[in-house]
Design a protein that fits this description.
Largest sheet: 5 strands, parallel
Structural class: alpha/beta
Number of strands: 7
Radius of gyration: 13 Å
Helix content: 40-55%
CATH architecture: 3-Layer(aba) Sandwich
Distance between the termini: 22 Å
CATH superfamily: Response regulator
CATH class: Alpha Beta
Strand content: 15-25%
Order of helices and strands: EHEHEEEHEHEH
Shape: globular
Number of helices: 5
Number of domains: 1
Strand order of the largest sheet: 2-1-3-6-7
Length: about 130
């Protein structure tokens, strides 16, 4: 069963994403505190980070995890700017999910990213430091 770490301080948003993910294992942090997030990210097949976080932002959190070796990171936002997806990719993240969106579309994007992680593990790649 795939594991997804959600980093978001909005209980409503987290509840919606949990419901979308169905029977996947979901881990959650409500802050971008790197120590806690790093430990949980090591267990995850995918890290989903809210673009807007109290006291931080998804770009900073994603970049910090990326620099530690975590490769499969997606940002999400319900009010993205036109350039946010480009910035996410520029710092090495997988991209940006725009909310709201049809559930099947979001789930398809999430599953595609998880399958990359699983394939990477099968190929012997190291996905986290």
């Amino acid at each position: 069963m795939p594991t997804v770490l959600i980093i978001d301080d909005s209980p409503t948003q987290v509840a919606c994403i949990r419901e979308l993910l169905g029977d996947m294992r979901v881990l959650h942090r409500n802050s971008a505190a790197l120590g806690e997030s790093r430990l949980l990210a090591a267990q995850a097949d995918l890290v989903l980070i809210a673009l807007i976080l109290r006291g931080s932002n998804g770009f900073e959190c994603g970049l910090q995890l990326r620099e530690l070796g975590f490769l499969n990171i997606l940002l999400y936002s319900d009010c993205p700017e036109d350039t946010d997806a480009d910035w996410a990719r520029a710092i090495g993240l997988q991209g940006l999910l725009q909310l709201p969106a049809p559930a099947h579309s979001l789930l398809q994007q999430i599953k595609q990213n998880i399958s990359r992680t699983v394939k990477g593990r099968e190929d012997g790649q190291r996905w986290a430091s």
